Amino acid sequence: MIEVKNLKKGFGDKTVINDVSVVMQAGKCNLIIGASGSGKTVFMKCLVGLFSPDSGEILYDGQNFTDMDDEARKEVRKQIGMLFQGSALFDSQTVEQNIMFPLNMFTKDSYQQKLKRVNEVLDRVNLKDVNKKFPAELSGGMKKRVGIARAIVLNPKYLFCDEPNSGLDPQTSLVIDKLINEITKEYNITTIINTHDMNSVMEIGDHIIYMHKGVKEWEGSNKEIIFSKNELLNEFIFASEFLKDAKDMRMLEQTGKIDNNRNMDDLIK
Ligand SMILES: Nc1ncnc2c1ncn2[C@@H]1O[C@H](COP(=O)(O)OP(=O)(O)O)[C@@H](O)[C@H]1O
Ligand SMILES: [Mg+2]
């Protein structure tokens, strides 16, 4: 579990994260959604310690990350897995070397032990016979899988994914979302995902936090989001006219006011 209390972060006189408090539970996909520039990446970077917040607290299972000493901080970092935007693999290293990197950094295991672990996580993300391949030889979806394998190689308690679907087609995105969701549940990880992909929201959004200009504007589940009355949130999720119309149709159909087949035809025209 990660608890964020009254987090603030700005650059110069510009406030980017404005007094955000939120609790993110283990075994759940916690999605941070919001328009581009709303502060999702800055928020995530504060949580993992890449930015230091101006004020507020971040608690990792009760431990205050904001004021702990370097040694304790390193211990928490060891339990954090990160999937960066665009996977951020080392181009000049093979898949095996990429995934071994965190093991080299944080363990004193032998090569054989490390190799065993690399193969376990590769198997978990359904990749075979790619150990000696270089990132350039892989498809976008495969690179993401390698990124996920690297992120989970140290058995993290916390997993951060910044826009895991960027650059992927909708079908591959769904596969990646499902994989992250399965891993989250299987290992009881507290997973935080930045996204603006509404498919992800509906598919894996156990807990959704909507950010607008650095403020937490709404939070709830994927079951609640469609029926939210929050105007800013609605503008965001029903950004396309098609979806707005579809939502109205659903409402009317549910209340028996329209014949759904005929009106769906009108809508698609
Ligand atoms: N290192 C930085 N220095 C100054 N401003 C920054 C820095 N990083 C991000 N920002 C600003 O913070 C705001 C939020 O950015 P970001 O968190 O990247 O948005 P999102 O991830 O939601 O698209 C933007 O206005 C951006 O310009
Ligand atoms: Mg971002």
From TrEMBL:
Molecular function per GO: ATP binding; ATP hydrolysis activity
Q: Where is the ABC transporter domain?
A: 2-238
The family database entries (Pfam families) matched by this protein are listed as: ABC_tran
Domain of life of the organism encoding this protein: Bacteria
Which PROSITE patterns does the UniProt entry name for this protein? ABC_TRANSPORTER_1, ABC_TRANSPORTER_2
The protein's UniProt keywords, in alphabetical order, are:
ATP-binding, Nucleotide-binding, Transport
Which PANTHER family has this protein been placed in?
INTERMEMBRANE PHOSPHOLIPID TRANSPORT SYSTEM ATP-BINDING PROTEIN MLAF, PROTEIN TRIGALACTOSYLDIACYLGLYCEROL 3, CHLOROPLASTIC
The name under which this protein is listed is Phospholipid/cholesterol/gamma-HCH transport system ATP-binding protein
Q: Which organism is it from?
A: Pseudobacter ginsenosidimutans
